[in-house]
Amino acid sequence: MCRSLRYCVSHCLHAAMTRLEEANQEVNMHTSVRYLGFLARITLLVAICMGLYVRWEQTAETLILVIFILGLFIFGIASILYYYFSMEVASLSLSNLWFGFLLGLLCFIDMSQFKYDVKEEATKYLLISSIIIRAMYALVERICGCVRHHPTLLTAAEFLELTGFAVASTIMLVQKSLCIILLITAFALIVIDLRMKSFLAILNLVIFSVVTPVLFFPSLKIPVNPFALSCFFCCIISEPFLDVYFSGLSVTERWKPYLYRSPICRRFSVMSIGLIELIFFILAAFKLQDLHLWYFVIPGFSIFGIFWLICHIIFLITLWGFHTKLNDCHKVYYSHRTDNSLDRVMASKGMRHFCLISERLVFFSLLSTTVLGAVSWQPSIGTFMSLFLIVLPLESMAHGLFHELGSCLGGTSVGYAVVIPTNFCRN
């Protein structure tokens, strides 16, 4: 009896100690990974401070010094909120907004006079180090399982950094600032496109990565710091790019922030897409003013413009019809919530067949946009290029949504058969 009791006690203690050791190892691993993220942030902060100091030292601009001191003051407040008041959300929001803003200043302040300065060279290496450490942090965090993926379009950190960068672009002229803001919008849509795992998301990212440095910024004729610009874009894109592989969310879970929106918001999104498409078509029509290749531009725009209009009228009707059917699915889902899931309701309503047809229609819309953009390409107009980069991920997301819903949803079918009676029938 005593031996059995001693065995049970020792076994329980051993199991408890083993579990405690595993928990400690897990906590240590999470802490180590988190320190890697802190290192990336500290490296970026040092790079920003050094870059702003060099610009103030070389230009003697009082405004740069004021922004530099104000930035340090705000980061100090964010640290106090984080460590002493446990206001993690407010602290991170404040710091992310200022990281985006200060990186934007580093991008758009002219550095041609001091680009060979020793401190400027150190700033470049720090920015590159920040990119590498941030990418390693995102990769290690996912390999170690420290990330819990939640359905979202843009995280708060991404939105605030993009907002800060867009605000920093207002130091330029209004037209150039508008082009930068549109480019940031296009980049945000590409981030969402990657997070939704759209079929053409990687291709859109490649197009954005080529068009932006090669054509977009030269068209604005503004000095841009390529290292700060690369740091900004790479730090934001690293996590959604890796989530294309590491995210285990299902289709409806990934699209939940959109599919579960109110009908008014979803209808408004369709109207917004239609307005953006119309503005893109109007800007593409400005190519007709170029009489240098009129024999190519006018017939090409006439043919492909009509094709584009037909495809996109069908595209908008398809989106509107999809949301009409989705509203019906929501009504059934909320009235029988305990018995059904939205996937089953959508399958019973024939959404799979609708999505399979819509996928092909949206693909033709995407193809027509690509062809029209190529025919009416305007390398000297940044607004056209930024709108083209906005339209592509929008249509890519619609194509990806229909493609994935058509692949994962169940279908409905009716079977007919002739059954031979087995019993003997008497007259």
UniProtKB/TrEMBL annotation:
- Report what the protein is called: Transmembrane protein 168
Q: Which InterPro entries match?
A: TMEM168
Query: What are the annotated GO cellular component locations?
Result: nuclear membrane
Which keywords appear in this protein's UniProt record, sorted alphabetically?
Glycoprotein, Membrane, Nucleus, Transmembrane, Transmembrane helix
Give the originating organism: Aquarana catesbeiana (American bullfrog)
UniProt-annotated location(s): Nucleus membrane
In the record, the note on similarity to other proteins reads:
Belongs to the TMEM168 family.
Q: Does the UniProt entry include the keyword Protease?
A: no
- Identify its membrane topology class: Multi-pass membrane protein
Spans through the membrane: 38-56, 62-85, 97-116, 174-192, 199-220, 226-247, 268-286, 292-322, 354-375
